[in-house]
Write a structure and sequence with these properties.
CATH superfamily of the largest domain: Bordetella uptake gene, domain 1
Order of helices and strands: HEHEHEHEEHEHEHEHEEHHEH
Number of domains: 2
CATH topology of the largest domain: D-Maltodextrin-Binding Protein, domain 2
Structural class: alpha/beta
Distance between the termini: 79 Å
Helix content: 40-55%
CATH class of the largest domain: Alpha Beta
CATH architecture of the largest domain: 3-Layer(aba) Sandwich
Largest sheet: 6 strands, mixed
Strand content: 15-25%
Strand order of the largest sheet: 2-1-3-10-4-11
Radius of gyration: 24 Å
Number of helices: 11
Length: about 325
């Protein structure tokens, strides 16, 4: 009898230890860091902090956003890539993460990560003055082709996503712009208003005040869906022109992170991105709420990485 009781006691102890180990290995059970590769206060930082707050409420552990800046985002992404693949370090991933390697900033690519979600997109738009001779994107494309290197197109800086947008417009036209880089979208728009350039390829929210005042008109949006900022403007694809250029923001973990941890984060991220707080923030900033799950975003990033790796060298752009 005593021997039997001893065996039972040992079995109970083994079961308790097993259950305890299982509970200890439950993910997540400690603070998760969200690495933002840009400075505090910007759009990416704000979106990441709202996301972190929502994830904290869903998974019941602290989610803390931390800024690691430098080299156009490469420093923060390198830090996240080299972190332990245990789900406790998440990177905010901008569209530039598919471009930085081709630009010469870093050896990393989006293949070094697994996405858990895309949160938003910010489409490019093709905008001209209201008194310009072009009333449609088709008219502009025809003029670029017939009169190469005569139409001056402003962008927000050499190698920026809006520079890439202008390059894709001229590729579709089979012609050439005169590219005029500026230090951001605002001075490019000011130059357009001042008749120093002819076109800008920046986001709809950045030209909205000029559109509202009647000084500017948007010929087309280059997103994968219409813009909530200028909802009556067609997309290029609506017009039968195969151009999609948009900034985006998502979240990812190092590529070796176990699938079961990725699944936990992916499920929580869907809820966080669908939260009213995040939707309200995106709407206020003129961004498009445009959720994609992790596997779909992995495929999207892989496609864009291949495209930019070919296009950027063709444009002769290097950091």
């Amino acid at each position: 009898m005593r021997k039997r009781m001893l065996v039972i006691a040992i079995l109970i102890l083994v079961v308790a230890m097993f259950v305890g180990c299982q509970e200890e290995s439950q993910y997540p059970d400690k603070q998760v860091t969200v690495v933002v590769p840009y400075s505090p206060g910007g759009a990416s930082d704000t979106v990441a902090r709202i996301f972190a707050s929502e994830m904290e409420a869903i998974l019941d552990v602290p989610f803390v956003a931390t800024n690691k800046t430098g080299a156009s985002g490469s420093v923060g992404l390198e830090y996240a890539k080299n972190s332990d693949p245990d789900g406790y370090t998440i990177a905010y991933m901008p569209v530039e993460s598919t471009m930085l390697n081709a630009l010469g900033f870093t050896d990393l690519t989006t293949d070094d990560f697994k996405f858990i979600a895309r949160a938003m997109t910010i489409p490019a738009s093709v905008t001209v003055r209201s008194d310009s001779p072009w009333n449609t994107l088709e008219e502009l494309l025809a003029d670029i082709k017939e009169n190469p290197e005569t139409i001056k197109c402003g962008n927000s800086g050499t190698g920026s996503i809006w520079h890439i947008a202008a390059a894709q417009v001229e590729l579709a036209a089979e012609g050439k712009f005169v590219h005029v880089p500026f230090d951001g979208a605002a001075p490019a728009i000011a130059a357009l208003m001042g008749e120093n350039i002819d076109v800008v390829t920046v986001s709809p929210s950045e030209v909205k005040s000029g559109v509202d005042s009647g000084d500017l008109k948007v010929l087309a949006v280059l997103g994968d869906k219409p813009s909530s900022v200028v909802p009556d403007v067609p997309t290029a694809t609506d017009l039968g022109i195969d151009i999609v250029v948009q900034a985006w923001g998502g979240f990812a973990v190092p590529a070796d992170t176990p699938d079961e941890i990725v699944k936990v984060l992916e499920d929580a991220a869907e809820q966080a991105i669908d939260s009213q707080n995040l939707k309200d923030l995106l709407a206020d900033r003129g961004f498009e709420h445009n959720y994609l799950n992790g596997s779909d975003m992995d495929a999207t990033a892989k496609k864009e990485l291949a495209f930019y790796s070919e296009l950027i060298p063709q444009l002769g752009i290097k950091e």
